[in-house]
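To illustrate the input format used throughout this study, we show a single complete record. The first block contains the structure-token representation of the backbone; no residue identities are included at this stage. The design step must infer an amino acid for every position from geometry alone.
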């Protein structure tokens, strides 16, 4: 039987493709910093929401508590760099599924951890759209990025096989869909089965 990280990767592929396309479409429409700030706000709602809902459960596993760090504060730093005085609405939670235990929290964070792998590509696309500052969140600052990703996948693979993996992949897909809805309220996942 494949391990949970591999199952998640294959079972959320459709979600990834759809959300990736949505993000790319929105980047292509960016013409100035205000447009960029509007996109960054959506990432903030998503990251801040999932982190707030998931991090309390990480305390149950020391390795997870030590490995995972919140990344939404980096977005706040970028807002400062962009000198936006905009108050950030806390409204992302209604679109997101709410983890009720450690395994659900971890597969929700899988979506965030994975999305940071695409960050450097997003940063390059934004540079091409003329964005020159406030890119710290997307660029990432971890030299040991792949090592961190591997360690995170190890945490996923330590979730016992007796756990309902199908439920966990559904949960992860629901997190992707939540972000899709934050990006575009009409978003729907077209399941490929
Ligand atoms: C322009 C947008 C994006 C690009 C270009 C992109 C690109 C990538 C790439 C290249 C990888 C593979 C990295 C590797 O294994 O070496 C990856 C993985 C991943 N991305 Fe994205 N991504 C984008 C947006 C997103 C978003 C918005 C999310 C989530 C909301 C996301 C979630 C994930 C996840 C969960 C993985 C891990 C897949 C696995 O299990 O290996 N991505 N992405």
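Output of the design step:
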């Amino acid at each position: 039987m494949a391990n949970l990280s591999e199952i998640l990767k294959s079972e959320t592929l459709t979600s990834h493709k759809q959300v990736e396309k949505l993000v790319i479409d929105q980047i292509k429409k960016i013409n100035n910093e205000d447009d960029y700030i509007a996109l960054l706000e959506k990432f903030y709602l998503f990251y801040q929401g999932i982190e707030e809902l998931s991090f309390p459960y990480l305390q149950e596993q020391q390795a997870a508590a030590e490995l995972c760090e919140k990344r939404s504060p980096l977005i706040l730093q970028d807002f400062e760099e962009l000198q936006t005085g905009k108050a950030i609405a806390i409204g992302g939670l209604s679109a997101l599924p709410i983890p009720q235990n450690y395994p659900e929290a971890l597969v929700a964070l899988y979506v965030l951890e994975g999305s940071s792998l695409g960050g450097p590509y997003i940063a390059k696309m934004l540079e091409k759209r003329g964005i020159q500052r406030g890119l710290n969140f997307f660029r990432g600052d971890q030299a040991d990025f792949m090592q961190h990703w591997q360690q995170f996948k190890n945490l996923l693979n330590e979730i016992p096989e007796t756990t309902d993996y199908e439920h966990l992949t559904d949960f992860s897909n629901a997190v992707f869909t939540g972000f899709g809805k934050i990006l575009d309220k009409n978003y729907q996942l077209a399941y490929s089965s």
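Structural context for interpreting the output: The chain has one domain: 4-183. Residues 4-183 form a domain with the Heme Oxygenase; Chain A fold (CATH 1.20.910.10).
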